[in-house]
Predict the structure.
Amino acid sequence: MSQGELFTAVSAVLCVAHAVLGVLWWARDRADRAVVARLDAADIDPYHAVATTDRDPGRDADRAGAAELLLAGLIRVKDDGQVAVTAAGAAPDMTPEHPVPAAVLATLRGHAAPWALNWLYLDAEHRARRDAFLRAEDARWPRWATRSRDRVKPAAILVTVLFAGWCSGQLLYVRGAFSGPGGEVAAAVFVGLLMWGVFALVLGLVVLAVWPWRRDRFSEYCRSLPPHPAEAALDDEGRDRLHRAMTYSPPRTEVVEDLSWDPGAF
């Protein structure tokens, strides 16, 4: 088999591999769309829906939980934005049934003084309580539990990178780079690796540009849902206080230096 025929055969294998991966991508995308079409009749937890659309999973769920506590009068937001538990919120029998607002209230109860609501992400115990619920909700949707992962496109890139390595090796073989002394062979291997890197970069960029990632249709669906009921029920003042609580920043303590110069000190 000549080099031209060999190159044609390997190129055909590459095309077949990409075609198979393309069929897998299409089948998975069709199955994703079929599942999303049935979500209208599903019972999606509002807190889970809010957390799904958040780039920082849990932050918006905490915000919705705080809105529910604020509506129930279990917490209050001070003028500076810090949050404190009310007398009703301190009563154990007033703990909400839902795990997310219950986790927020439990964390706030652990602080005697007013506390910043946007510091919840620093509390490991709070994250553990909240994330346990979110993971359990993810388990209800096993198709979407790993929705951020796409194994088809990386496979297409890997096949292309291997093809680039084969091409660089064939170019060096045709030029007889591996038939010389040991030093020349080592140099040929180094040049081959550089060529592989260049080919892989160029072909990989092409694959990245033309091959679509898996769409996160579950997150797209959750974004189309109405706002969380607790946040929607807040009036303008309540929304403003909740916003201040989620964006609280402690005041800076300015240190004024005495820049006066006393000649007698020298």
